[in-house]
Amino acid sequence: MAVGDGETVGAGSNEEERKMDHGLLAFKFILSFIIPDVPKHIQIKLSRLEFESLEALKKKKMLEASELTKGIQ
């Protein structure tokens, strides 16, 4: 018997397997949205680090700008 010759041997089990596969894929899809990739406490620490880095950069630019204006006067 060749694949795709139209005969349906064990069609019931294939249909059940297909339903099971779709159910498992749906379950996996739902879990991927429920469980975050990065824990909340890590997200907070990364956000804080980014904020502090930006603030330090702003401060550095302000100091450089004030030194330039002092040099001009």
How would you describe this protein?
- The chain is rod-shaped, with a radius of gyration of 30 Å.
- The chain starts with 10 loop residues before the first helix and ends with a helix.
- Helices cover 78% and strands 0% of the residues.
- The longest helix has 33 residues, at 40-72.
- By secondary structure, it is mainly alpha-helical.
- It has one domain.
In short:
The protein is an all-alpha fold and 73 residues long.
Question: Mean pLDDT, as a whole number?
Answer: 86
User: In DSSP terms, counting alpha (H) and pi (I) runs of 4 or more, how many helices?
Assistant: 2
Strand content: under 5%
**Main sheet specs:** none
| Distance from first to last alpha carbon | 94 Å
Q: What's the order of the H and E elements?
A: HH
Domains (count): 1
Overall, the morphology is rod-shaped
Low-confidence stretches: none
Could you name the key traits of this structure?
about 70 residues; single chain; rod-shaped; mainly alpha; about 80% helix
Write the layout of secondary structure elements.
Blueprint: H1 11-34, H2 40-72
